[in-house]
Design brief:
The protein has about 210 residues and is α/β, with parallel strands linked by helices. The chain is built from 8 helices and 12 strands. A hairpin with a 2-residue loop joins β4 and β5. The two termini are about 35 Å apart.
């Protein structure tokens, strides 16, 4: 076994007790994280990384992460990953199917998808909007359950969300269903960052680095 392989085994041997990831309840991140350990849901993937760093917990992030502000891309996974270079590291990466996703319409607003004018989506699902709901005015949200909520309350005509969340919302009808695969990355503090933080804490408590 090479030294690199050995260090990987050491990193993976750390038990996963708490995972910080994207909420609200019902996200694919929540679904995956719940199989790893106790979960804490936060409002964004950058916040998940921040809280995991602060609490020395694990963060579950998808490389599919894209954030938009005023319609323009404002953050991506690669930017987030590099911002934490030297502080947080990937200790596991794996593919997994999402929960079934769908395009859904609010039948109280429109009779079918062909009559819809607006749709709420998470930026990562834009390709499905291109494929199944091209031409609709888009409202971007930070998580698919938030898109479902906007459609259910009648703010928009349609949404792309997880099928189970759509079915639980009521007043929405799934008209296109798909089941794509995603890649997931589990992060934890780097050994160096943890050691440095422990030393800093010791200095703070004792007033001495000795």
């Amino acid at each position: 076994m090479s030294s690199d392989d050995a260090s990987a085994v050491i990193r993976l041997a750390r038990p996963v007790s708490k995972v910080i990831t994207l909420g609200p309840a019902g996200t694919d991140a929540h679904h995956i994280a719940s199989g790893l350990g106790t979960t804490q849901l936060v409002e964004s993937f950058p916040r998940a990384m921040e809280v995991a760093w602060q609490q020395d917990a694990h963060a579950l992030i998808t490389p599919g992460f894209v954030a938009r502000t005023a319609g323009e891309i404002s953050d991506t996974w690669v930017n987030l990953h590099f911002r934490y270079s030297g502080r947080m590291e990937i200790v596991r990466a794996w593919p997994a199917a999402t929960k079934p996703m769908c395009v859904a319409v609010n039948r109280r607003r429109v009779p079918d998808l062909s009559r819809a004018e607006s749709i709420a989506i998470h930026p990562s699902t834009a390709v499905f909007a291109d494929r199944h709901a091209a031409g609709l005015r888009r409202t971007f949200v930070d998580a698919k359950p938030l898109a479902v909520a906007l459609a259910a309350e009648g703010t928009v005509d349609a949404c792309i969300g997880s099928l189970d969340v759509v079915q639980a919302a009521g007043d929405l009808e799934a008209v296109e269903v798909f089941h794509p695969q995603m890649l997931w990355c589990l992060y934890q503090r780097t050994a160096r960052a943890t050691t440095t933080l422990a030393a800093d804490n010791l200095v703070a408590v004792t007033g001495s680095g000795a």
